[in-house]
Write a structure and sequence with these properties.
- The protein is α/β, with parallel strands linked by helices and about 190 residues long.
- It is built from 3 helices and 10 strands, in the order βαβββββααββββ.
- About 20% of the residues lie in helices and about 20% in strands.
- The strands form 4 sheets. Strands 1-2-3-4 form a 4-stranded parallel sheet.
- A hairpin with a 2-residue loop joins strand 9 and strand 10.
- Helix 2 crosses helix 3.
């Protein structure tokens, strides 16, 4: 089971409580003070079944400025510039830490749907191995420099294509992508092989 903690920051007491439930996978926000998290003050927060999330800037170059960082932060996900629907149906932007946590939680729940993980730690380890990529520039801010892989999502039937991917798995250019995904295969429109 996955527990989405809508709370973040530095709190050894909460981490100690979560550490008592190793069968669960906890998703927790790194916090919004823009400070280095001291792991010696929060040893329980390093538990392998606690997934602490930090928000990335929209261009994925760094964490947002107000995000906490450090050894117990295990993954980062885009949180800046994520639109949502606010009161009265008006478009607004989600708080970066909330948007990042929501995306990680949704992807972790998808991963857990198979029911094949014996513990929260096993689920989180598989998730980090299968759904993240390392970004060396984030080393020291996030464990292993890991960010959520934005181009593949694991669903109940294995890896699935996102709506923005073509049949061959290449990213479709929506005019907003800043990452070069290669050119699509060339087709001979004359019908010749």
């Amino acid at each position: 089971d996955v527990v989405d903690m809508g709370y973040g920051g530095n709190n050894e007491d909460l981490c100690a409580l979560m550490a008592d439930f190793p069968n669960l996978a906890f998703v927790w926000i790194a916090g919004n003070q823009g400070t280095l998290i001291d792991p010696t003050r929060e040893p329980s927060c390093a538990s392998p079944h606690i997934l602490r999330v930090a928000p990335l800037r929209a261009d994925q170059s760094d964490l947002v400025s107000q995000s906490n960082y450090g050894a117990t932060v295990r993954v980062a996900a885009v949180g800046e510039g994520v639109s949502s629907i606010g009161a009265g149906g008006h478009q607004t932007f989600a708080a970066p830490s909330m948007a990042a946590r929501a995306e990680v939680t949704a992807r972790l729940v998808d991963q857990a749907a198979c029911g094949c993980y014996r513990s929260g730690a096993e689920l989180i380890t598989a998730f980090l191995n299968e759904q993240t990529v390392a970004v060396p520039a984030l080393e020291g801010k996030v464990e292993g420099g890991r960010i959520l892989d934005g181009f593949r999502r694991r669903g109940r039937r294995g890896l699935v294509r996102r709506a923005s991917e073509g049949q061959d798995g290449r990213q479709i250019d929506n005019g907003k992508s800043k990452i070069d995904h290669g050119s699509p295969p060339q087709r001979d429109l004359t019908g010749r092989p």
